[in-house]
């Protein structure tokens, strides 16, 4: 592969280009002065991106609520100087020309108007100060606040600050009357002008994915003709790569044949003898990756993945997914790629390592583990776990927490509160250190803590039921505010807290063993397919005559699996239904729409639900009556045996997701995503990408009807994984108490027989004497 251009040269190129961009905007657009001002700060603080020129008429508007920007709850501003904020960013191919904050807020009627106000700050600079007249206190208000574009760069922070006072005399800085409430439904509106980036592989994954963009990724894939298995495997490598990049945003991949989109970006996969209407590409002399301008949109780009045959096409896709940071130029021909080392089970980059303890410094940036002030933000540590950890008779996941904090002057109620996904786990007291201490221990502590902070350590276990596939540990330093008396209360910004990066969490001693089918493990973590990060144990079975909806569903699911693992699916196998018999030994993902999948009929006896055209059959268990969901490692808790079966005909566009043991190989799994109409597959993908709906995908069978997801059955029939022999015997007997009782009786009888024979032999010896 060719090497990537250095960051310094890229930065210089963009800095040279942005003044030309500003001049072009002044000449071409009506609001010239405002847009020229918008270009200036971006030139000063932009990241290295090559830019050509702006084209008139490329203005559009983005709107984000504060909730979409990360404020899950209304912003509560408290005290004499309360601050709360959210981050926002601007794509590399856009320049902000106007910004408005539509603020919904209320404030305390006790605030003094002459001394109090609410500041709107962007990147630390005051954009506007909002007065707080007494007559509007306690009333829900709205206000449009214009934000100067010159304050906005690529990565930004919007802060709301309350400067509050309730008396002209001595006041309590934490008085209950000092408050303002900012609705998280307040809207930030950004007017942007698009700019055309240079056709350069060094910008990848931009503009196809831009980490500054918090919206879901929608990236069309274009095939020149009906793709074969190898071409689809190449596309799956790319969709899983983009899915891993998109992460929490989610990613969908519409598919077309021989037709590029009218606007925006797209990925084209083709061999040398194929052509896509309206698109030209360089001569293909091997696996080739290139970037071209969308002929229908001067701002859109086409990512060309080419090869002389399907094998080279997959080589190009793999090289792009694993080596994008090394590419440069408008086109690159891959001359060599070393054979990758085989992946090991459970080694996905996004998962906690299963072979050793993992340090918090590996999970979060060191700067994010530090906070300051009496009302600090949460310290957040995010991680994913394999969903098949077996914690039977275990206390939980061990955590060795090391932290430091500014000691309290006197004993009080200050604590470090520890939450898991906003659920309280435990708290640790923040102790006081007396500076006038006379004991030897106190004097020794003063010597070993020259920075004024107290090191502390806590070891505890997190119950496995509190740890879903995606977990966030939250640490909150709560400092008790001790009132000193009238005119003595002063808030000093002299408190600090940190979670040490060498704190650890350890899952290495847990076995991997899970009752299946378990659609919750599939929808949240992609299990069992993601057991191998590259999906080398996975085969996707499409109908013999697939539709674009089938292709799109396949790519979207692989994007979801890439998000779970953080690694492209370089080992996935794609086959048609007629090839299914050759896929023994693999976990199967079966996709179907419109009754074109013959495996649904062949395997109907194994499936808890099935769709065959308009004919539908559902196996039902007590799962449909369950009011609350409970996740437990004990299979007896989760199992809901099938009670009855319902069959009917209907022309609705329902979709089903079902899991069962593979008829081709014992211990292997099959997950079916099926709909009698293509629209049903779209609804299934929407449910998997929706954070609220995905929680309802559980058990062994799920039906999706528009925005409603119902789990119908949780009949677990087989197990995946392994236990050590002693633990397996203990677990098996715990699940079969009658067998345990029978073995106890047999053991007692054997013991009685042994004792009887021993005593008889002893009696004979005594009589012989």
From TrEMBL:
Query: What is its subcellular localisation?
Result: Cell inner membrane
Pathway of action = Glycan metabolism; bacterial cellulose biosynthesis
Identify one Pfam family in the record.
BcsB
Keyword Lyase present in the record's keywords: the answer is no
Source organism superkingdom:
Bacteria
Which stretch is the leader sequence? 1-22
What residue ranges are annotated as transmembrane?
738-759
Which terms are listed as keywords in the entry?
A: c-di-GMP, Cell inner membrane, Cell membrane, Cellulose biosynthesis, Membrane, Signal, Transmembrane, Transmembrane helix
Kindly state the subunit structure of this protein.
Answer: Tightly associated with the cellulose synthase catalytic subunit.
- Say what the protein does: Binds the cellulose synthase activator, bis-(3'-5') cyclic diguanylic acid (c-di-GMP).
The similarity annotation says: Belongs to the AcsB/BcsB family.
The protein in question is named: Cyclic di-GMP-binding protein
Protein encoded by which gene = bcsB_2
